[in-house]
Amino acid sequence: MTVSAFFQSFHFLRPLWLLALPFLFALVFWLSRRHARSKDWSGVIDADLLPALQLQDVDSMGRSMRPWPWLTLAWTLAVLALAGPCWQQDRVRAYRAPAAWVLVLDLSPSMEASDLSPHRVTRARYAMEDILVAARDARVGLVVFSDEPYTVTPLTQDVATVRALLPSLAPDLMPSAGDHLAPALEQARQLLEASVAKEKRMVVMTDGFDDPAAALRLAAFLKSQGVIISVVGAGTLAGAPLRDANGSFAQAQNGATQWVKLDVDQLQQLATAGGGRYVDIANLPSLIFDLQASSQKPRDAIAAQGIELAHWRDAGAYLLPALLLIVAILTRKRWL
Questions:
Q1: Does residue 319 surpass a pLDDT of 80?
Q2: What is the Cα–Cα distance from 21 to 28, expressed in whole angstroms?
Q3: Which of 58, 61, 164, 183 has its CA 20 to 30 A from that of 258?
Q4: Is 27 exposed, middle or buried (0-12, 13-18, 19+ CB in 10 A)?
């Protein structure tokens, strides 16, 4: 780098620190004057006798030792280092934030149905474990819902911890029964909103929900914000009898056994509104393939284009050896 190029590119990353220099210079001046007055015995001792009684602070070379220039230099170097002098740039390969996925699991009472062996919720947990295994470097969060939504884990790359929490998730864990999906989508949206990832997805695993108008409206809004919602149906068209909290078959008002069937039309509408796709648990591998493909493609494109970012190199650390040397000089016993 030529001298002209150096002066053209030289600047401070944190120039406001330079405002401290005048105050430090004034402080050194005040300390030196105060120190001089503290050693002035002329008002107490006779002027003819004072030179004979006074000891001069001299070093081996016979020169007066004054700490103030060294203190000024030390503080100046410290402020310059804090201000961040720089004149060179480093170039690094661009890094794209990993994809963000939020898994939304239905824990309503109907998920205890046994049309999927052994239960819908058990098969749903297995399916979610398969998705987590395929997450690779994606950040994953988990939200469960029944009457109200609950965040099990925020977005994290610690997939092992999320997988460890899955076996304990069951409808009887929820404090109240219900099947409201819209609040769960809103809670998942808040998790994704805190992420800087450009690839944001939700995977809803459910057998149906009782607030279709609100859920479809929110899914369409999320699609407009760039969030893609895919839906996995947990159950069968034939359905199974619903069990109550005591394990017995639930009875309708007419005394007949209540059956819960997979509402495929409703789930397909949700996937369409959210810009994603609907699959049942048996076809989950195809959805996993799509998730992996969408999260890897942008990163491959960046690598192929060779995009790099430039940032200024902070050279303040180069001043530290000189600063430490001066501080060592200032710690001489006579100057304490």
A1: yes
A2: 11
A3: 183
A4: middle
Residue pair 139/98 in contact (Cβ under 8 Å)? The answer is: yes
> Closest Cα partner for 154 from 172, 145, 142?
142
- The residue that leads in pLDDT, 254 or 268, is 268
Region 110-131: mean pLDDT is 92
**Average pLDDT of the chain to the nearest whole number:** 82
CATH match for 100-305 among 3.30.70.240, 3.40.50.410, 3.90.400.10, 3.50.50.60: 3.40.50.410
- What end-to-end distance do the CA atoms of the chain give, in Å? 43
Contact 143, 187 (CB under 8 A): yes
The answer to whether 312 and 89 are in contact (CB under 8 A) is: yes
Closest of 204, 185, 205, 183 to residue 193, by C-alpha: 185
In sequence order, the 6+-apart residues with CB closer than 8 A to the CB of 156 are 139, 140, 141, 162
**What does the domain layout of the chain look like in residue ranges?**
3-92+311-335, 100-305
The reported pLDDT for the residue numbered 60 is 43
Looking at residue 298, what is its pLDDT?
47
- Residue 143 in contact with residue 192, Cβ under 8 Å? no
- Token match 């009472």: residue? 109
pTM: 0.61
Instruction: Give the tens place of pLDDT for each residue, 137-162.
Output: 789 999 999 999 999 999 998 999 99
Q: Pairing state of beta strands 227-233 and 200-206?
A: parallel
Please give the share of the chain, as a percent, with pLDDT higher than 70.
78
Which DSSP helix (H) or strand (E) runs through 233? strand 227-233
d(C-alpha 126, C-alpha 136), whole Å: 17
Which DSSP category does 14 fall into? S
